[in-house]
Amino acid sequence: MEQPLLDRLRFIVLASILILITTVSSVAADELQQTLAPFLTKHCLRCHGENEPEGQVRVDQLDWDISNNNTAQRWQDLLDVLNASEMPPEDEEQPSTEELVSVLRVLTKSVEHARKRLTDTGGEIAMRRLNRREYAGTIRELIGLRIPLELIPADAESDSFDTVGADQYFTSSHFEQYLELSTGIVKKAFSWADKPRKKLSVQRNDPEGKINRVAEKRFKEQREKLALIQRSKSWKEAGFSDEGEMNLFINRSKKESVDARYLSYPRIREGQYLAPPNHLKRATMNLRADPRATYRFRIHGGVREGQIPLRHFVGIHRGNDLDVVKVMGTESNPKSVEITTSLPFGSTGLISMQILALHGQDKKTDPDGDWAPIWIDYMEFEGPIYPQDRSFFETLIYPTEPTRGKNKLPWNDKNAEQLIRQFAQVAFRGVKPSERYVAKLAKLFAKNRTEGQSFQQAITEPLAIVLASPQFLFVQESKPASSGRQPLSDRELAIRLAYFLWSCPPDQRLKELVAQGTLSSDVVLRQQVNRMLDDPKADAFFEGFASQWAELDRFDAITVDPKKFLKFSDGLRQSARREVVEFFKLMVQEDLPVDNLIDSNFVVVDALLQQHYELENSSSFASGGFEKLSLSPKSPRGGLLGQMAFLTLGSNGERSSPVIRGAWVLDKILHDPPSPPPPNVPELGAASRTPVTNRQMVVLHQKQVVCYSCHKKMDGIGFGFENFDTIGRWRDTESVRKKQVRIEPGGTLASGESFQDIHELKKLLLAQKHHLAQELCESLTAYGIGRTIEFSDSGRVRAILETSRGQDFRIRSMISEIVVSSLFRTK
Fold it and tell me: For the whole model, what pTM was predicted?
C-alpha cells in the first residue's frame, strides 16, 4: 500500500474518531483472530508480510488484543481499506461476498468495542456549563423573567445530550456574551421590581374596523380609476405611472376585485375574515404586558359552513413561536379558543399576536372551498396572571411587596456589599462566595458611585458579573478527597436532581430536605422524583430529553416541499414535533412500559394531527391541546413508530427512506447503532439511473459488498414502514414514472425472522423490548448525570435494568431507579 494512501486514511480516521458510534457488543481477541487470520494469510500476507512489505505495512505483526490506541488505529486503517474495496488489488484473488461480509462484521465490532474500552474515563464527570434550557430555567427561578433561547449563547453540537459536560466549551467570547445578556436582565429586573402587581382584567380588540377601512378605501380608488378610464381619460389623468400599469389594471378589473369580493361577505361589520391577500390574511392584536406574568390570549370566531377539515385551523404567531389551534365555532355560532402566552425578554414591551389560516384554498385538495373560510369576531387578552410567589430578586430588592405609592429601597451604599453577598450565594446555588470575590464586586460598585451613577445603576454591573461568573454558569461538584467514586453531598444531589427533572435549581422543598440531611434516603428520593415529575416544571425534562433522544433537530432540518405535499404546513410540523414530547410525557405520567414506544393502543395528538392521521372524531377534543385517543386494533399508528416526526425524519423530504428509518430503529429501539458509513461509500441514489421504487433502490444498493454488511440489518426493518409517505400519511402505492406501484411492506430482519406488514414488524420488535429498555436507561442516565455511559458502567446499568425488568420496564419507575442508583448519586 502506498504511504500517502495510508497517511490519508489515518487522517480520515483521526478526524472522524470523535463521532464514532460505539456498541456494547463484546468480541474477544480469539474470535477476531479466528476470523481474520485465515483471511489475511490468503489475501494480504504475500504483499504485506515479512519480505519487503509494500508501503512498509505488515499484517503479520498485528496485535490481536486491541489494548491501546496505536493498535486500534492500525486495525481501523485495515477496516477502511477493506470497506473502500481498495484491497486486495484487482489483479489478486478476490474474496467471496460471504467471506468479506463476515470479516467486515467481526472487524467492525472489534474496533468499535476497543474504542469504547479505550475511551473509558472511569466515570469521571466533566464540569459542565448550564445549557440554554437550564440557563433560561435558572434565570426564570432567580429573576422571574423568561429568556428566549435564541438570546442565550449557543450550545455546542453534541452526539449525545446538551447536558454532557465533555461536549461543551467556554471561551472569552462566551463570557462577553453572557455579561452583556446578564446586564440587560438585571436592568430589566430592576425596572419591574418596584412595580406593584396589577389586577386581572380583559382587553378586547375588534379587528374589522381597520380592515374594512382599508378594503373600502382601495375599492373606492379602484372604482374611481375605472370611471376615469371609461371616460377616456389618459393614464396620467387616471393616476397611473405609465400606460402599461393602466392596461394591467384594465385587465384585472375584468375580474372581481379582491376588496369587492371581501366586502361582499355577510359579517364584515362584526368581524374579520381571513382571506389570501396580504392586507386581509392576518388578524393582529398587541398588548403592553408585564414580563413577570402570563396572559390568556383568546380568539372568538367560527368557520363558514362546508369547509373541509384541513381549513379549520389557524396558526397563532408570537415572534418565532407558533401555536396551532382549531377554530371550533361556526360563522353563525362562534366559540372561543385560547392559549397562554407571556412577554419574552428582549422585546419592545409588547406581546404581538398574529392569526393566520394554516391552509388557503387549493384547487387540488379543496376545489369547492371558500375563499375566506374563517371569521374572527374578536380577540382578547386576559391577565396579568402572576405566579403565586414573587421571584427571589423581587423579594431581595423589596422584601415588602411594592404598592402604588413611592417604594423605599432598603439598600444603600453602606449595605450594598451585603446585597451582593446574598444575591451571589443564591445565584451560586447555596455556595457562599469568597469574601475576596464579594469585596472586588463591592469595590466596583463604589467606583461606579463615585462616577456619578445612581445606586441602581452602580449595583447593576456587579450583579450582572455574578450571573456571568463560572460559579453561576457551571454546575460545580467538589472533587473527591480520594480516588474512586465518592457520594454526592445532599446539596449536590439536590442540584443534580433538579436540573435532571426541571432544568432549573432546587426549590424550597429540596432545600429543606438538604438542611435536614434526609434527601439521600432512598424513600425520600423516590418521593421527590414523583413530586417533581408531577410538577409543571417537569415539562422542561419532557421536552429536553424526548426531543434530543428522538433526534428532533434532524426532523426540524428536513425540508418538505409544500407544493408536492399540499397538506404540509409549518403548523403541521410544529404539531408533529410536540406529539413526540406529549407522548413521552404521558408515558411518564401514567408510568407505562417502555414498549409503548414500539406500539401502543393509543395516540397523543392535537386536532390537526387527528385530522392528518384520519382518526375518528372525538366530540370532547380540545381546540389546541393534546389528548390521549384510543386506537382500533387494526390501526398502524400506535407508538413512536407511527408518528409523523419519526416518519418524516426517516426521509429526505421528498421520498421516504427505508435506510434512515431502519437505522433509527436499529439505534434507538434495538440499541444496536449501525457503524458510520465507510469512506467513499456510494450514495443510495447512485444505485439506479432510472426511476425505481424505494425498495428496488435499496436492494440495488445492497448488492455492493461494502454496503451489504450494514444495510442487511437496517433495510429489512425500514421496509416495514414503506406504507407511510414522507409526511407520515398512510398509502398503499408509491409513484414511479407517474404510475402508482403497489408497496411491498414485508421484510426480513438480520435474525432471519420475516414479517409481512407493520403489525408483524412491531410484534418482532416488541419481543426485543429489553434492548429498548437498555437504550432508554443509558440515555436517561447520561442526560441526568451529564456524561455518556461507558464500558465500566455496564454492571450498574445492568442492576437498574434487573430491577426495572420486574416492574415491566415502566418508564417512571425506571427514572426513579436511576435516581437512587449509585451512578446518579456519586461523582
Answer: 0.84
